[in-house]
Amino acid sequence: MSFRTHVKLSPKDTAPVPRAAVRAGVAGHRPQMPWVDMVVAAAVLVLLYATLRVGQGTTVSFTPGQDVHVSTDPARLPYDAARSLLRMFAALAASTVFTFGYAFAAAKSRRLERILIPALDILQSVPVLGFLTVAVTGFIALFPGSMLGLECASVFAIFTSQAWNMTFGFYQSLISLPRELDELSRSFRFTRWMRFWKVELPAGMIGLVWNGMMSFGGGWFFLVASEAISVNNQNYALPGVGSYAGAAIADGDLGKVGWAVLTMAVMVIGVNFLFWRPLVAWAEKFKNEQSEAGQRQRSVVLDLLRRSHWPRIIGRILRPAGHALARAGRVFGADDRRLHVDRTKQRTGDIVFGTVAGALTLWGLADLARYLNDRTGLGVFGEPLLLGLVTLARVVVLMVAATLVWVPVGVWIGFSPRLTRIAQPLVQVLASFPANFLFPLATWFFLKTGLDINIGGIVLMALGAQWYILFNTIAGAMAIPADLREAMDDLGVTGWQRWKRLIIPGIFPAYVTGGITASGGAWNASIVSEIVTFGTTTLTATGLGAYIAHATDTGDFPHLIAGVAVMSLYVVALNRLLWRPLYRLAEHRYAL
Amino acid sequence: MALSTLHHLRSARYARATLARQTARGPRPADGEVLLSATGLTKSYAGADGELPVLSGIDLTIRAGEVVALLGKSGSGKSTLLRCLAGLIPASSGTVTYKDTPLTGANPGTAMVFQNFALLPWLTVQQNVELGLEAKGVPAAERADAALRAIDLIGLDGFESAYPKELSGGMRQRVGFARALVVEPDVLLMDEPFSALDVLTAENLRGELMELWESGQFPTRSIVLVTHNIEEAVLMADRIVILGSRPYRTIRDEFEVSLDRPRERDSAAFQDLIDRVYRTMTGRPKDLRPTGHPEATDGAGTDKRTPATAALPAASVDGLSGLAEIVLHRGGCCDLADLADDLGLDFDDILPLVDALDLLGFLVVRGDDLLLTSTGAAFAAADVQRSKTLFAEAAMNAPLVKLITSSLRNNPAGTLRAGFFRDLLAHHFTSEQVTRQLETATDWGRYAELYSYDAEPQEYHLETGPSTLRRR
Hints:
Pfam families (chain B): AAA_assoc_C, ABC_tran
CATH class of the largest domain in chain B: Alpha Beta
GO molecular function, one term (chain B): ATP binding
Strand content of chain B: 15-25%
Distance between the termini of chain A: 28 Å
CATH class of the largest domain in chain A: Mainly Alpha
Helix content of chain B: 40-55%
Protein name (chain B): ABC transporter permease
Oligomer: heterodimer
InterPro entries (chain B): AAA+_ATPase (IPR003593), AAA-associated_dom_C (IPR018632), ABC_transporter-like_ATP-bd (IPR003439), ABC_transporter-like_CS (IPR017871), ABC_transporter_ATP-bind (IPR050166), P-loop_NTPase (IPR027417)
Distance between the termini of chain B: 74 Å
Shape of chain A: globular
Strand order of the largest sheet of chain B: 6-7-8-3-9-10
Keywords (chain B): ATP-binding, Nucleotide-binding, Transport
Number of helices of chain B: 19
CATH topology of the largest domain in chain A: MetI-like fold
Number of strands of chain B: 16
Radius of gyration of chain B: 25 Å
Strand order of the largest sheet of chain A: 1-2
C-alpha cells in the first residue's frame, strides 16, 4: 500500500484533501530517455543484490534465539501501541531527513539529478515488502544479539514506504520554486543556509506535510507487516500492535484480534487528530497566496496550542539557538550562480561521471548475472514472469470492480457537501487503517465458506487498495464546478449522457491519481494477500506475491531477487504503458 | 525619515549635493561616477539553428544621481537587460561591470524591486525587510533597527508585524521598496514595480517615491526602472532608453528628460515628450512597413514580407475589430496617445492591436495618428459574415497566414501537421515565440475560415472560406 503519488500543492488547492493536487509520481518528473531508466533500474537491482549478499554473508555469524513468543494479554496493548508509534515516528523522522538530503542533491546537482530521479521512480515501484528480508538480515547483522537490529529493520520497512513520495514531492517543489523567489534569494545574496530555511523549505512545506501525512497513513500497513516476520525459516517479533495481532491470529483468538483492531483504530485516529491535523493547519501559513483563502484547514489542537503561551516561550528559548545556527550556516556560502561556466571543464566532468557510473553498474550487473547463473541459472526469471501474469489478472479484476463500485458512490458523496463532510475523514482513516489487520477475519471467512484463496486474494488486496479510488473520486467530484452541473441541469443533460459529458471527464484527473496509487498498492499487497494464515491453516494462492513471500520465508535469495525484480518490472511497465499516458491525457485534456 | 542617522556620512554628502544642485537643474547631481555599464551586451536564447538574439549590441551606462527608464514593448528584452545588470542571468556576449569590475555572479551593488513584489508570505513585514541585512550577516538587534527605520521611511509604520497577505497591493510594494532600500544598494533596480497595482495606488506610490528621491533621503545613488508605461517613464526618469523589439533588439533611441520635478502632466513640454516617445515606439522601418492600403499594394511590396520579418502581433480578432470600430466611431482617424489614454490602456495593450490592423491593411500609422483605410472602415462597419469575408481577404496580407493557407492549398490532402510550420518558424523565433505565432495564426485563420486546426493530432486542415458555405 505504498503511495505512489505525491502531493504537489499549488496555492489554489485548498480542499481539505489534496484532491487533484495529489499528483502522480510516475508522471511528475522531468522527461527522461528510456535508456536512462533502464540503466538506473539495473543499478537499483544491483544495489539490492549487493545488500542481500552482504546481509547473507554476515548472518552466518548470527546465532538467533528461539522463535519469539509474544504475550497476548490485552493489558500489554498500551505498551505495545507506544512501541509501534515510536517506530512510526522514527521512520517519519528518517524519511524527512532523507527527503531533505536526497531531494536537495537531486535539485542542485545536474549530474546527480540524472541518476537520483529515475532511481527514485524505480524505487517507488519496487514492492516494499521485498525489502523487508534484506532489512531484517542486514540490521540483525549490524546489531548482533540486540533487539535494536530488529527495531531498525522495522523502522526501515516503514521508511521505505514513506520516503519516496515525500522525496519526490519535495524535489518537485525545489525545482519549481517560483522564479521571483529564486531571483529574490540571489539578488539579495542570501546565504545557502538562508535560502533553504527561509525560501525553499517554506515554499515546499505544505506539500511536505501533506505527503508526510499520506505516507504516514500508508506506513501503518508496513508497521503491521514488519513487526512480526519470518525470514529464512526464523520467526522474529518485536513488541508492538502488529506482533500482538500476529500472535492473536496464530492462537486463532478472534476476541484478542478484535482488541488489536480497536487499538489500531484508536492510534490511527489519535495520531491524525493530535499530530497531522494541527500540522496541516499550521502549514497553512506557508501558502504562497496573495490573499486570505476562503477555506482554511482548522485544528482544535492547534488553536488550543496557539492560545497557550508555550509557543512564545519556546520560541524565545530557541531564538538564540536559531541565530547561532544561522551564523554557523554561513559556512555553506552565498546563494550565487556563476555567470560563466567553463564548457569544456563541464563536459569533461560529465564524461568522467557518466563513465564511472556506467562502469560500476555494468560490473554489478555482470556479477549479479554470474551469481544467479551459478545458483539457479538465468531461467529463474521465467517462473515469476508467468506468475506475474496471474497477479496482474487479479490487479485488473480488482481495479475494474473497485471502479464500478466506488466511482458512482464517490460521485454521489462528492456532489453532496453534507455527505462529503461526514465521509471524507472516514475514508481517510479507512485508507490509513492497515488492511492486513483484517486479513485474519477474512481468512476465517474464507475457511468458513470455502471460498478459493485464488479469488479471495483479490478481496484481500482490495481491502487496502480500493479506498484510494473512492477517496480521489470524492475529491474529483467535489472539484466539478457547481455552475457546470447547473448548466447540465438547465440543458436537461441526464443519465449516461451526463456521465459521458460531465462527470467522467470531470473526475478523470483525480481518478487517475487514485488509480495509480491503488494499482501500486495492490501489487504490494499481493505479497501478503496471496499467502494467508489463520491459526494453523495456511492458504496459498498462485501468484507472484505468494512466490516472493515464499522466497522470503525460506531465505531463497536468488528467487527473491528474481521475484522482486519481476514485480518491479510489472509495476513500472504498467505505469509507463497505462498510467502515465492516462495522466498526461488528464493533465492536457481534462484539467478543470 | 530617520534612516539618515545610520548613514549620516552618505546623507551628509547627499545633503551637500542637494544644496549644490538647487541652483542647477534639480536637487540631484549627476556626479558622474559610472556605477553600472554594459558594453556590447548580447543575450540570445537557443533556437532551431543557433542562437536567437533577444538583445544585441547594447551599450548602456548608469551614472550616480540619475533615474534611467528602460522602455519597450513586451518582448523587447527590457526585463532581460535588467536581469543582466543585476547579474542574475549571464550575457551571451559582452560585459556588464559594476564600478569597473566585471560581474561574475549576482551584482553586489544592486537591489531589486519585483513586479509581483516577491515577498515571502510566511514572514512578517519586518522579517521580509530584514532579509537583505540578514544575508549580509548583520547582527539581529542592528538589523531590526535598520529595518524599522526603512519601514518608517517608506511609510509602513504600524505594519511591522503584519503578514504580506494582510496588506493591499500598494502596501506590499512598499515592503518591496523598504527591503531593497535597507541594504543601501548603489543602484536600485525596479522591474515594472507599479504595473501590478491599480492606477491610483501606482500614482500615489510613484509620487512618494520620487519625493523621497528628490529629498536626498533616498539611500541609493541611482535608479534603473523597467516599464512599458510611457507616461511613467516621462514622469520619473532623467533619461529614457527605448529598446526596440524585433527586428531591432537593441537601443533604438534615448531621451533626456530635463523637466523639473514634480512634473506637470498637463504641461506642453510633458505632452510633447510623450508624443515624441510614442512616435519612436510605433515607428517602423521603411522597408518592412506594410504598404497600408491593400488596393494600393503592389506585388513586390507584399512579397518582401515573410513570416520572419513581419511577425504576427499577439492580437485576437475580437480585440482588433474592437479597436477598428472605435477608430471608425472617431471618424476613422485619431491620435494614438489620446486613444490609449481615453481607453485607460497601456500602449503595451494597444500596440499589438494597432500592429495587427496595420499588418492586415486595415489601418495606417502616420506619426502618432491612426488612419483607417477604406477596407478597414468597411471591416469595422460590417456584420459578422461580411466582416469574416473582409478579414479572410485581409488575412492573406499576414505572411504566416498566407504561408499556412497556400501550403495547405498545394497539399493534395489539404492537411498539414503543425510541426511543419513549427520547423519553418524555428529558424527565426524561440520556441515560445513560435507557439505564440502559431496561436495567433490559428486564431486568425479559424475566424477567416481559411483553415481549421485540430489540437489533438495538431493538424491544420484547409477550409473553403467564409463566403461559400455560410451564405444563405
